[in-house]
Records
---
Amino acid sequence: MVPAEILNQISDRCTEGLALALASPDDGAIMELKWCNKPFTKVTGYSANEALGQRGTILIGADLEHGVHLFIIEKLMNWENFQTEAVNNRKGGETYFQRMSWSHLTDPTTGDRWWLCSIIDLGDRRQGSPREQHKSEAVSHVEDGTSILSKVHSLELENARLHKLAQSVAKDANEDALTGLSNRRHFEVEVKTWINRLKEEGREFAVLYIDLDRFKFVNDTLGHEAGDNLLVTVADILRELTDDADLVARLGGDEFAILRSLSSSALAISGLADDIVQRMQAPFFCDGKSTSCSTSIGVAIANANTKDPERIVAYADEALYHAKAQGKGRWSFFTEQMHAQSIATKRLASDLFLACERQEFIPYFQPLVDARTGEVASAETLVRWAHPTRGILPPVEFLDSAENVGILKQVDKIVFEKLKLAIAVFDEADVLLPRVAINVSAARLMDPTFIHDIRSSGIAPNRLTIEILESVYLDRLGDLVRWTIDELDEIGVTIALDDFGTGHASVSGLLEIKPSILKIDRSFIQPIVDDVTKQRLVSSIVGIGKSLGMRIVAEGIETEDHARVVSALGCDYLQGYFFGRPMSAEDLKALLCATDGLLWPRARSYGASQEEEYSEKAS
Ligand code: C2E
Ligand code: MG
Ligand code: MG
C-alpha cells in the first residue's frame, strides 16, 4: 500500500493539473469541485480556495471556442469521457493552449459519481493557426454559424436552470420545509463537524434539545394548521434568540435543537435556555383562540471532559427527559449522575421484559377485616417481583417503569393467572376467604381480553373485587373503560374506587361509575386519632358514600386506635399493617388457619358506644 503522504506528493509534483468534482447523479454537467492539486492552481490561475465549491464551468474561459464549449457540455451531460485541445483562459484572462481530459469515476460504497479533470498547459501555440492544427474532435464534427450559437445558448440556459435546480434540491435536502430551519439530516452532519472541531481544535459547544410540552394537545384540539403555525412561531422565536454562529434545527415533530459554541461563556447557554423557556410560556394565538404550550430543554456540553462526544445529542436528550420528569416547562443540564440513573432505568426496563417472560411477578395478599366482626372479609392482591438476585421487590421499585415501557398490562395479567392458583390453594386448605380484590391499571381495563380472562378464570365473579385508581377512572373514562366497567358490573364483579381523596373525584363522577366500594386513602387515616378535621372529613366521605349505597374501606390501619376511630366513624372494612402486612399466599393461608379468620378479636368489644362518641366529635 502506497502511503497517503507519498500519493499527495506525487499529485503535487506531476505536471498535470488535476481536479475532482462531485457530480449530480442525474446530470454530469452539474458538479462541484471538491479537490485539486497544486499544478491545477498553477495552470488555471485559480487558488484551491477559489476553485473548490465552484462549478466545473469556471474552467470554460471566454476565449474557448463555442463549438468546443458545446462539445464539453454535451459530453459532461451524457457522462462520456472526452478530451479537448483548445485555446482557453486562465483565471486572469490570459490565454494559453491546453489539453483538457475528463474521465468519470464511481464510488463503489456510496454510489457517488465524480469527474476527474486533467489539464495540461501546452504552451502558447497560437502561432501557425493552432486552432487548425489542434482542432478538437469536437470542432471537427459540429456545424458552425448561428445554429451552433443558438444551440450553445440554449444549452447554457438549460445548464444554468439545472444548476439552480440542483442548488435548490441541495437546499431542500438540508432544510425543514415547514420552518426553514436546518433539518435532522443537516443537523447530524453538523454535529459530526462540531465534534471533529472539538477533537482537533478544542472548540467546545453545547447542544440544546428542545421539546414542546403540549404539542399533541394543540394539534388535537385546534387542528393541524394551528399545530403547524405553532411550529413556525417556535422557529421564529428560536431564530430571534440565536445568532448566525448558532445552528438551529427542527429534528421532526415538535423537537428542535440548537448547537452553540462555548467560545462566549456557559452563561450564554443557560441564558439562552432560560429565554426560550420564558418566551414559550406566553400564550399563543391561532384563529383568535389562545392556547399555551410550554417547552422543556435538555442541555449537554461537549468539552475536553466529555467521555464520549459522539453521544452528546443522546446526553442532551437524557437531560430533556429529566427536565420533563421534573415537571416540564423548564430546562436541565446533563450530569453524570443523570446518566447513571438513565442507564439504571434502561437496565430496569430490559430486566422487566425478561421478568415478564419468566413470569417473575407474584401476588402477595393483605387481609381486609370486617369492622363489626373482626373477621377477614377479603384480601387485596398486591404484586411483588420475585427478583432472581434482589429478592422480593415492592411495586414502588418497578410499577412506574413497567407502565412507562408499556408492560403493566402483562404484569396485571400474570398476577391474575397466579391469583387463580393461590385461590385454589386457599380453598383446598378450607380457609375462610370470602373475597379477593385485584388492582388493575388503566391499560388492563382497556385490554379487550380482560373480561374474557375473568370469565374464564374459574373465580366466581361475586367473589372478585376490581380496584380502580381514582386518577385512572377520572382521566381515561373512554368508551372502552366505560364498557369494561359496565360489563364487570353485569357479570357480578364488585368495583372499588381505590385511594379515594388523592385524585379529584367529584360526586357526579361517583354517580356515573357507582363503585360499590370506596377505599379512603391512608393519608386521611394515619393522623385521624388526634386530628378532628380529618375525622370530620372521613365522616363526611362515609356519609356521602353511604348515601350512594357504597361500603367504605379505611386503608392504612396501623394501630388499634386507628381501627377503633374509623370503625366508630362508620367505615365498614379495615385494612392495614395492624392486621397484617402484605404476605405470600402461604403466609396468608397459615395466618387464616391459625386465627380461624378472626383477625381483630376485640372488634366486638368496641362498638356502638365508640361509634356515638366519634360521630358526635366529628359532627
Ligand atoms: P394500593 O392498591 O392502595 O395498595 C395499598 C398499599 O398500601 C400497598 O402498598 C400496601 O402494602 C400499603 N399498605 C397497606 N397497609 C398499610 C399500612 O398500614 N401502612 C402503610 N404505610 N402502608 C400500607 P404496595 O403493596 O406497595 O402497593 C402499592 C400500590 O401499587 C398499590 O396501592 C396499587 O396501587 C399498586 N399495585 C399493587 N399491586 C398491583 C397490581 O397487581 N397491579 C397494579 N396495576 N397495581 C398494583
Ligand atoms: Mg388497591
Ligand atoms: Mg389504595
---
Amino acid sequence: MGVELTVASEEPSTLEAVNPAGLLTLDFEQPERAADAVRVFSAQYPINGVVGVDDTTAVVAAAVATRLKLKGNPVHAAIAASDKYLQRELLAEAAVPIPRFELRSLEEDPTAIAKSIPYPCVLKPVRLSASRGVMRADSPQSFVTAHRRLRAILADPETAAACGDRARQYLVEEFVPGYEVALEGLVVDRRLHVLTLFDKPDPLDGPFFEETIYVTPSRVPAGLQAAIKDCADRAVRAVGITDGPVHAELRYNERGPWLIELAARPIGGRCSAVLRFGDHGVSLEELILRHALGMSIPSMQRERLAAGVMMIPIPGEGTMRDVRGLAEAKTVPLVEDVQITAHPGERLIPFPEGSRYPGFIFARGETPDVVETALREAHRRLTFVLE
Ligand code: ADP
C-alpha cells in the first residue's frame, strides 16, 4: 500500500532505538496517557491514521484518534464495545434484542445467587474475549461449579489486569438457544457495511463455547439474514460506533435474531485470511487501513467463492510435542493452508480456562458445503501429540 507503519506495543522492542519511527511503546492500560504520548511522537513522525487490533487496543486507538483528530470511534463507544456490561446496558436501552442479564460481584455468595436465577444461564467475565471463561450452567449445582472456575480464572494477575475494575465482577445471562452466525463489518461514517456473514455450523450449546468452523456465504435464508444484519446495525448505533471494523456474534431462533456480542475490532486469530475482496483479492486488513487513512476503498464485495476457516479445537490439556499428518491435511482438495500456531513445548489449555487455538485450517470452493467438508476432512488427518 506504500503506507509507512508505526507499531505500538505495551512492552518496549529491543529494536526501538534503531527504528524510532516504526516502533513505539505505549501504556495500553492508560489510553489517555497513550494518546498524549502519540501526540508528542506525531510532532516528529506524522500520524495519518490509527487502527487497534484487539479489544484493548481498540480503546487506545479511539483515544489516539480523538486526540489527533483522526478517523476513529469515540472513546466511550470503544469502551462500551469491550465491556460486556456497559454494552448490554446500551443495547437494552435501544431495545436491541439481547438476553436478560445481571451484573454480579464475585464476593457475593454463589449458592444464594444459584437458588434465585432461572436456568439454563451463562456466566461470563465482563472484559475477556474469545469465549474465555464463558460457561453455561443448567442447575444451581453447575452454577456454583462454574462460579468457582470463573473466580480462579479471574484470580490470575495478568487476567485481572486485563479486566481492570471489572476483575471482581461477572455477568449472569439467560442462555439463548439457537443457530449462531458471526458478522464482519466496516463502519464508515456511522453506517455499517456488512462485509460478510459467517455460518458457525457446529452447535454452540455449551457448557463451554469453543469456536470451530466459520464458513461464508451463510446458508441462512435471505429474509433472516436481513433481520440479522438489521439487528447488528441497530447494535452499532446503540453502542455509538462510528468508524472502523466490527465483529459481531448473533443467534437466531423462533423469536428472531439476538445480539450476543459486538466488538469494535476485526475477527481474531488468523481467521481474516479467509476473506478477500474485489477483483484483486484485497485483504480485510487493507480495507481497514484504507478506511482509517481516508483512502478510497475500491470494493467491499467479498469474492465469489465460498470460503471457510476452522479454528482447530484444543486437543486436550498438556504440552504439545508434535503434530502429525500436516502434509496429509494440506493435500485435501480445496484446503489452501493449514497453519499450526502453537509451538512444540507450548502448554495447551482447554476452554474455559484457555482460549488459544493451536492452529487454523483454510479452504475455498464453489459452495459452503464443500468447503465445510474439506475443513473437517483436513482436521481428521491431524494428530496432536501431547504430553
Ligand atoms: P467473548 O467476547 O469472550 O467471545 P461472548 O459473550 O461473545 O464472549 O460469548 C462467547 C460465546 O458464548 C458466544 O459466541 C456464544 O456462542 C456463547 N454465548 C455467550 N452468551 C450467551 C447467551 N446469553 N446465550 C447463548 N449463548 C451465549
